[in-house]
Write a structure and sequence with these properties.
The protein has about 190 residues and is mostly helical. About 80% of the residues lie in helices and about 0% in strands. The structure holds fe (ii) ion (2 copies). The site of one fe (ii) ion (FE2) has 6 residues, from helix 2, helix 3 and helix 4. The site of one fe (ii) ion has 6 residues, from helix 2, helix 3 and helix 4.
């Protein structure tokens, strides 16, 4: 039986961050249609990251607050910083639209690339800190049942379609033991074989 461990979805988060970094790196910024595609992908990523951080603040960190630990405070202030940085990157995408001069567009695109690359460098460090600092603190202070209750609340009220959609999104980024753990967690929470 594996130790209860949150953050397995970070493998998916890391994939999404890196996939967009590769695309921005290769983008022909002279073409607004190319920029628009990445702008849309970034907007989707931004929404996913904000909801991920919210789930951590409200669900996971609540366990630590109840135990009197303050280890999550640094993480929460990083979440605030990330929200600001995501807005800055979004503004950089938006301000590309009206630019007509090719040299200006290329220069602006390079600034956008560097801004995004710095952002994901910090994000990858943040994901690592959650797994190497927050997770051991949770395992030290909380029972498995307390930890299991965080995601169980969500799994219990999801429709079959929502569960399958979530599995379709996450499973390509998991190894077999992550997948086995994840399926077991969902089944226990729902009391069925979804
Ligand atoms: Fe986080
Ligand atoms: Fe996270």
């Amino acid at each position: 039986m594996q130790k209860y461990r949150f953050y397995r979805e970070h493998k998916y988060v890391s994939h999404e961050l890196n996939d967009l970094e590769r695309k921005i790196a290769k983008c022909d910024f002279r073409l607004q249609t190319e920029v628009e595609k990445l702008h849309q992908q970034f907007a989707n990523l931004k929404a996913m990251l904000e909801s991920h951080a919210e789930h951590e603040n409200v669900g996971i960190h609540e366990l630590l607050r109840k135990k009197g630990s303050r280890l999550h405070e640094q993480c929460e202030s990083e979440h605030k910083k990330q929200t600001q940085e995501l807005s800055n990157i979004l503004s950089k995408f938006e301000s590309m639209g009206p630019l007509e001069d090719e040299k200006q567009r290329i220069e602006h695109g390079h600034e956008l690339y560097l801004l995004y690359r710095t952002f994901i460098a910090d994000m990858l460090r943040h994901l690592n800190d959650e797994e190497t600092q927050i997770m051991p603190e949770l395992q030290r202070l909380c029972s498995e049942e307390e930890m299991r209750s965080v995601d169980a609340k969500h799994y219990a009220v999801m429709s079959e379609e929502e569960v399958h959609h979530m599995l379709d999104v996450l499973s390509p980024h998991m190894n077999p033991s992550d997948y086995e753990f994840f399926m077991d967690d969902i089944r226990r929470s729902r009391g069925d074989d979804s």
